[in-house]
Amino acid sequence: MKxxxxxNSLISIGIVGLIILFGAPLxxxxxxxxxxxxxxxxxxxxxxxxxxxxxxxILCFGQTAFFGIGGYAYAIAALNFGGSTGAIIAAVLVAxxxxxxxxxxMFYGRLSDVYLAVITLTVTLILYSVIRRxxxxxxxxxxxxxxxxxxxxxxxxxxxxxxxxxxxxEHVFYVAMVALLLAYFLCVWLTKSHFGRVCVSIxxxxxxxxxxxxxxxxxxxxxxxxxxxxxxxxxxxxxxxIGRITPDVFNLYNAALAIIWVIIGGRGTxxxxxxxxxxxxxxxxxxxxxxxxxxNLFLGLVLIVFVLVVPKGIVPSLVELWDRRKxxxxxxxxxxxMRRRGRSRVKxxxxxx
Amino acid sequence: MLETRSLSMHFGGVxxxxxxxxxxxxxxxxxxxxxxxxxxxxFFKCLTAQLRPTSGEVVIRDFNVSGSESHQVxxxxxxxxxxxxxxxxxxxxxxxxxxxxSQSASLKRSRVITSEVIERLQLGDxxxxxxxxxxxxQRQLVELGMVLAGExxxxxxxxxxxxxxxxEVIRTAEIIREINKSATMIVVEHDMQFIRMIARKxxxxxxxxxxxxxxxxxxxADARVREVYLGHRKTS
Lengths: 353, 236
Ligand SMILES: Nc1ncnc2c1ncn2[C@@H]1O[C@H](COP(=O)(O)OP(=O)(O)OP(=O)(O)O)[C@@H](O)[C@H]1O
Ligand SMILES: [Mg+2]
Hints:
The complex is a heterodimer.
Chain A: H1 2-27, H2 30-56, H3 63-81, H4 85-108, H5 113-132, E1 140-141, E2 144-145, E3 152-153, E4 158-159, E5 162-166, H6 169-192, H7 194-204, H8 206-211, H9 216-242, E6 244-245, H10 252-265, H11 271-290, H12 295-309, H13 314-352
Antiparallel strand pairs in A: 1-2, 3-6, 4-5
Helix pairs in contact in A: 1-6, 2-6, 2-9, 2-10, 2-11, 3-4, 3-9, 4-9, 6-7, 6-9, 7-9, 10-11, 10-12
Chain B: E1 2-11, E2 14-24, E3 29-33, H1 40-47, E4 55-60, E5 63-64, H2 70-75, E6 78-81, H3 93-104, H4 107-120, H5 136-149, E7 154-158, H6 166-182, E8 184-188, H7 192-198, E9 201-206, E10 209-215, H8 216-221, H9 223-235
Helix pairs in contact in B: 3-4, 3-5, 4-5
The complex binds adenosine-5'-triphosphate and magnesium ion.
């Protein structure tokens, strides 16, 4: 029963995803499609953090590091390769490698959770300040100038078979949405696999998992690396939707934002963080246009409210609410049935009499 | 099969285990007893590589434990239960046991093992319950189930009956005797009644050292043991 509900919800998510994929470019204007593409790239980042934090217990406070590395690596590779296909692959690999290297030192060094959070945040902030200082023409990789705080102009994605034919923004949207769907279902598959279930057991109790014979360092490293790769994919899509990648992706605000998405959407689910990112993206851009409240103040308030009132996050709380209503309805129905049956039995008894 | 050579573990100035030479034969069922703070759990943690000994070494079937990781010890086929219950509280009974079974067995086989273990421990009624919601004794039983599911040939248990009801203790004793048919065992215990139910040979720990080793009758007749352990228990 539980299994079938899971499958149902996965199917619904897939259908909604496909509707957005095909419907959005038809019904929205160009500007909205571009901003939706940006939102989707952030949702991919949220998904990656939701995976490693929710299912591996790894609180990475600097998941944006891999997002930004993915974006930068794509820009640099696309400029140098003169095409996007290889650049996308290279950027995902670079982000994954960065996560693997950092993860190796953290997990095999058996750092505690708090240090892990601090170190990942520090790495992001170091990248922020280092890349900001690369304005001079001498800072370049191949032909790509890093551009300091102005960042790099990102060459758009082109057709794999023709490097001179660039995708229109609507088509970039298709790519981003497909990337999100693929990444989402990859994560679902991963969390259902033996590997994923062991990662959940690590989240639950590290000592126990180890005493069962699992090398938890290795499992965490793999999880973290996959998370880095997915975050990198998000960064590639982000760079494409904006058309530019700047060091701001590495700043404290964005690092914190990623955490907030997951908290709001719901840790321990995969769709929750995706929702969290989408909702907050549209909420903050709406509020930004109104210019009546300070956005940082607003985010802080949202975070406090959620931690205090909806600590599980939106999606798990909604599911719980739904279950409770359903079970109440079920008990009401069965009570009615019982009453009816009781009455008919009374009648039978009377007839016998 | 298992041997420690001059094993010592110091915590700052505290000498928890002091130059212990211990050996265990194949298929033996050995009980480790001793007053609180005697160093039993510390000794246990050295055997399972949860602690790195200050000096000396632990060898299990030609494998040098000291200096390796505890998952490597477990992977050799050693089933371990710690004194503090270590379970996956957010997961259900079935998942807990399955995670243990699937470490070494194939996915198909581990499903079979899981149902077998659940049946054997009579946990069928709670197979879908979250561990966190179970009573203490039942949690202990699930942990024993996790040890069983790994199909170990060496089993090391630290106080398996702590917090159990009388009935559960008797059932646990039965299970332990059954495990012993296919595996060598070390059981750390406090409950003398329980030890009488299962033990052949007993090792008494006192102040980090082995005070005495022998049959249960021999041990309980010994004046020194009465003084440090049995007497201690009566007064406490
Ligand atoms: N991590 C630690 N750090 C410092 N001292 C410790 C540590 N672990 C144990 N000790 C000390 O080592 C000694 C032996 O402790 P241990 O837990 O091995 O005893 P025990 O025989 O298992 O006792 P009990 O019957 O209460 O479980 C005690 O004096 C204890 O305080
Ligand atoms: Mg102890």
